[in-house]
């Protein structure tokens, strides 16, 4: 017969009552000063001890039995009805091989969700959410950028207007997604251009100054219009939220999603588009340049000038394809469409 000592809590007060427990005829009997109860084993739940901490036996009516006799608690757990899920859980938890296998499966599920599941759901959601959602995100992002990384453009107003008029003229001849073109100075971003959620395209002064031809600037803007057309910025934001949801599911820390939502504009600035998104934007830009009768080589020349360390290599951790890989289609002979 299994006997062990412990502290009994009656579920009414926090007082611990020293008792002796025994396993007899399918019941757990608990005896102490003024205490004599017998609980059927099918109404007992044994919480396995963690490390050197005492184990807890949960009893009906919010009562508990705490004991440091781990061997006796193990015998009690074995004596419980075999069909109970708790027993199977304890059995699996006590086997290192099962625990490692469960960990491996969990890691694969989380990786698969982040790698394929979240982007797929973000793509679906980006096509169903109203335009006002990404427009609002874009406005908040632009406000943040203007506080920390963007300054008013130092380009002459006439230069800005000339580029804007050229873009507008091209968009009258072919379909362009709704957009707003802005010029800003930014020592942080250097020669760059970016598409924000909602259709705002920001071109830095440094990019315009590095260009050798206005068509090079238009070619870069065409690439950003590809991001606007496919709502890549919104998809990136939704993927970040989806990753936060998985983080909550794994860790149980709902504060992580709250922090992520609060820092979403900053996240959009720090995260790069995926390779697939860059390729989609490049494909759009190539078709746009051919329709505009602008030599696609203009984009290749500008991209090669911006990225002086152009490489054809891209590791699994790179968010962008290699520069040489990207510009190769723009070097092929093009033509007006």
What is the quaternary state of this protein? single chain
Taken in chain order, the helices and strands follow as EEEEEEEHHHHEHEEEHHHHHHHH
> What structural class is derived from the secondary structure elements?
alpha+beta
Largest sheet: 7 strands, antiparallel
Average pLDDT, to the nearest integer?
81
Q: Please estimate the helix content.
A: 40-55%
Q: What overall geometry do the principal axes of the alpha carbons give?
A: elongated
Q: With helices defined by DSSP (H or I, 4 residues minimum), what is the helix count?
A: 13
User: How many angstroms separate the termini?
Assistant: 90 Å
Count of separate structural domains: 2
Poorly predicted spans: 264-271, 310-319
Write out the strand line-up for the largest beta sheet, numbering strands in chain order.
4-3-2-1-7-6-5
